[in-house]
């Protein structure tokens, strides 16, 4: 990530050193020289990280949570490098009549975002972003994905359609996209009955990810609640189920949730302050606001990613606290892509 920030904002050694001090992670983060060497060596990885279910053991399987996060970060940041035609996902994102849309290389309009208030124009690594409902799921499966490639719900495969060639990787879908393709009824995670708070906990990352949910179980849970599709149980007992799953297939799909976005947004907030020369956290400072607009325009112009302002207040997956926990724990920063 540091390498990405340096490339994107053209930060030199001095500003990067100051950034490390501002983050109070001078010991953890690599030196500028190390990052420079890494930038020369790194190339787009073709490796795919799958979460498997060992035969005869479906309970207590340890899912490499942070390995999935680091791969997600790498793919997310590198996949939108369409400006120099290095993207694995050859799509261009353009604004049309004030709405954010997705257009393929031939100029064919794939999608127009009618909800411009969303912090991101579309979901990373997913081709298209729509609200999670049965009609949109059917549209994606029937229109964008050839029915013959139905194995998309079982494993990562290459899909070529309408001049789009994109490698869809099951293990790095976020919650929204996983729920959209897996048709799993809006559950927070299709592997576990864990809550979003538990999934974002470092304790869960240390102890491993208990696999105890299947789509068939979700269907049964829904029927047990109420046959009229009205939930009579509180949300905690529903374990994330919000509507009837449309699939009857057992699917393994690990959802990295929004933890990596928290880290990225929190990182960018510090970038804004560093650029503005302001060490106070308040995002309302005029200098910080000006810096935010300038840097956001650079990011949007270079990679079409719209970055929202992270919150410094308490919370779970959508604020800065989770990101701070990740940065503070040195044991979880010894990863190849997570902090580079």
Topology (elements, then pairings):
Elements: H1 2-9, H2 13-23, H3 32-41, H4 65-78, E1 91-96, E2 99-104, E3 109-112, H5 134-144, E4 157-161, E5 164-168, H6 175-182, H7 196-199, H8 202-207, H9 215-225, H10 235-238, H11 259-276, H12 286-303, H13 320-328
Antiparallel strand pairs: 1-2, 2-3, 4-5
Helix pairs in contact: 2-11, 11-12, 11-13
Q: Spans of 5+ residues with little confidence (pLDDT < 50)?
A: 1-9, 38-106, 108-134, 143-183, 246-264, 303-340
Judged by helices, strands and strand pairing, the structural class is mainly alpha
How many DSSP-defined strands? Answer: 5
Strand order of the largest sheet: 1-2-3
How many domains is the backbone divided into?
2
Calculate the mean pLDDT score and round it.
46
What is the terminal separation in angstroms?
A: 4 Å
What share of the residues does DSSP label as strand, in percent? 5-15%
**Rg over C-alpha atoms, rounded to the nearest angstrom:** 21 Å
Helix content: 25-40%
H/I helix tally: 13
For the biggest sheet, the summary is: 3 strands, antiparallel
Task: Note the overall shape.
Answer: globular
Q: What are the secondary-structure elements, in order, as H or E?
A: HHHHEEEHEEHHHHHHHH
Q: Can you walk me through this structure?
A:
Helix 2 packs across helix 11 and helix 11 packs across helix 13. It is built from 13 helices and 5 strands. A hairpin with a 2-residue loop joins strand 1 and strand 2. It is globular. The protein has 340 residues and is mainly α. The strands form 2 sheets. The chain has a 3-stranded antiparallel sheet with strand order 1-2-3, with no helix packed on it. The protein has a two-stranded antiparallel ribbon with strand order 4-5.
